[in-house]
Write a structure and sequence with these properties.
The chain is of the alpha/beta class and about 550 residues long. The chain contains 18 helices and 12 strands. The termini are far apart.
Length: about 550
């Protein structure tokens, strides 16, 4: 018998759908985990994805330059100077990739290399570290951003080489995603990067919440605020998910993604690096500061007014940089033991005159009176800054069991001045697994559509949406009513209970039927109890 052939390992080349591609890469990347802790492993894998992205984007641009030259009647020799012109790449939004940072160079030595020269005696990890250093040296915006930890003792060099080889098996282009062809490395690798971020967030549990907000929650903020143009800000930006979703929103509506300017700040060094890479992959030139930093201690964008703020700041921080004489505390000094109202007032301090904001908060923020929070909330209501309150369903965040809500603010509420919209969305969503819930497209559209119908925005007019209170789901409430309720902003307090559906069965008949069923269940319970007692007596006796 001839020797049996080994089963082929799935490769990028055979992964014809986006899901297959992401699953294949994740399974391969997971083999590299070894002795690394979760955060280091995340840096290694996402750094590798980023390097693959910039290299593919560079090659795409290189091919485009050559094609343009040939179309103009030039020869390949004539095109050579343009192919080495850094500005030709930067002008198109691509990074200049030095030769030793290009994926093809790494791929040649991924699985062992001849030791004929000192250059090739380096491990694949050392070559990747060098590639990262050369890339940062050639592109100032990337300075200090990329990881150089691939040659550490905790990284399995053989498996790293295998992963580089897998990434090399095909260009990340031409992948079918939901039936449509993806032709750019940025499109594919952007999805891969986001997919990996979500996987890492799930793997890290509570720590994962520091850098990742569930996409369906982010979409609620983006679809309600509709950031078509202007400055978009997140003071606790994590890995940049709010900005990426804003870009997707613009693309889905046929608008120009370059119409927004991105500003952000992040306290954690590693997370700040993830955000810089995430924005670069999605073609967003965000202003995230020259380094990470504490928003409360030092605002990196002190003189910039923002048109939109979208944020999921860390909940209920007890140890934070608070001073009582901070100019941001216009509506009252937040308590030392909880930063929630510090975040809210910082965000309001950043809004331009016509600006609006969406902030994810713990549910306690809607009704807490401790540490002066009730007085601050009353001031916010009386200043007519609160536009809408949305109570979200439980289990949206794998990283925390704390129930959450979204505060929406508007500096100019137009015809809805003096009113607040309350939406109770706690019954929406579906379980994606035993531990996590997600909002569907229809759920998100219902929340956003209700808000836009209430405000009478252009999108509501375009869709023919009209607002009506819906018992158990939404209600518009005057500031006077909120004052009478002690300035509590919990939607369930105002929207009431949903109307029960009339099944047509008369009440008397329903009571008689249910009583009969209950007595039958009592009789069956008694019968089973008798059987169990008889069996126990036999065993004992």
């Amino acid at each position: 018998m001839p020797p049996r052939k080994k089963a082929a390992t799935p490769s990028v080349a055979t992964a014809t759908t986006m899901k297959e591609l992401k699953d294949t890469l994740w399974k391969a990347a997971d083999k590299l985990r070894g002795s690394m802790d979760a955060s280091q492993y995340k840096d290694v894998i996402l750094g590798l994805v980023f390097l693959k992205y910039v290299s593919d984007a560079f090659e795409e641009r290189r091919e485009a330059i050559l094609a343009e030259c040939l179309a103009d009647g030039l020869t390949e020799d004539d095109a050579a100077p343009l192919l080495e012109d850094i500005d030709e790449y930067r002008r198109a939004g691509a990074f200049w990739v030095p030769e030793r940072s290009r994926w093809g160079y790494l791929a040649r030595y991924a699985k062992g290399r001849p030791a004929t020269t000192d250059e090739h005696e380096a491990s694949i990890g050392q070559l990747v570290d060098d590639a990262m250093s050369h890339l940062m040296g050639a592109n100032p915006p990337l300075a200090g951003t990329l990881p150089t930890i691939f040659n550490s003792v905790s990284v399995d060099q053989r498996r790293l080489g295998e992963l580089v080889d897998l990434f090399s098996s095909a260009r990340f282009t031409g992948v079918m995603a939901d039936g449509s062809k993806v032709s750019k490395a940025r499109d594919v690798l952007g999805e891969v990067y986001e997919y990996f971020l979500e996987k890492f967030a799930r793997a890290e549990g509570k720590r994962g919440g520091e850098f990742f907000t569930p996409p369906s929650v982010v979409r609620v903020l983006v679809e309600v605020l509709e950031p078509y143009r202007g400055r978009v800000y997140d003071p606790a930006c994590g890995s940049g998910g709010m900005f990426v979703q804003a870009e997707k929103f613009l693309e889905s509506h046929g608008a120009d993604p370059q119409a927004i300017s991105v500003y952000g700040q992040e306290l954690n060094e590693r997370t700040w690096r993830l955000a810089k890479m995430n924005l670069a992959i999605h073609g967003l030139s965000g202003q995230l500061g020259s380094r990470w930093g504490d928003t409360f201690a030092r605002d990196l964008h002190p003189d910039v007014s923002m048109d939109f703020v979208m944020s999921n700041p860390p909940f209920n921080i007890k140890d934070w940089a608070r001073t009582t004489d901070d100019a941001r505390w216009k509506y009252g000094v937040p308590p030392a033991g909880n930063a929630n109202y510090g975040w809210i007032q910082h965000i309001l301090s950043k809004l331009a005159p016509g600006g609006s904001a969406g902030v994810v908060m713990a549910n306690g923020s809607m009704s807490s009176n401790s540490g002066g929070e009730g007085e601050i909330r009353a001031q916010l209501v009386e200043a007519d800054l609160v536009s809408c309150m949305v109570a979200l369903p439980t289990q949206l965040f794998r990283s925390t069991g704390i129930p959450v809500c979204v505060w929406f603010f508007a500096k100019d509420k137009g015809a809805r001045a003096g009113e607040v919209l309350f939406i109770d969305a706690r019954n929406l969503g579906h379980m994606v697994d035993r531990a996590e819930r997600a909002l569907s497209d229809d759920d998100i559209a219902r929340i956003a559509g209700t808000y836009h119908a209430w405000r009478g925005t252009a999108s509501a007019v375009e869709q023919g949406l009209e607002y009506d209170d819906v018992a158990g789901f939404c209600k518009t409430v005057s500031l006077a009513e909120i004052k009478d309720a002690g300035y509590a902003l919990t939607p369930g307090r105002y929207v009431g209970a949903a109307e029960a559906e009339d099944d047509g069965e008369p009440v008397e008949e329903k009571i008689a039927r249910l009583a009969k069923e209950l007595f039958e269940q009592f009789d069956e319970s008694a019968r089973l109890e008798k059987v169990v007692r008889e069996q126990l007596e036999r065993v004992r006796g």
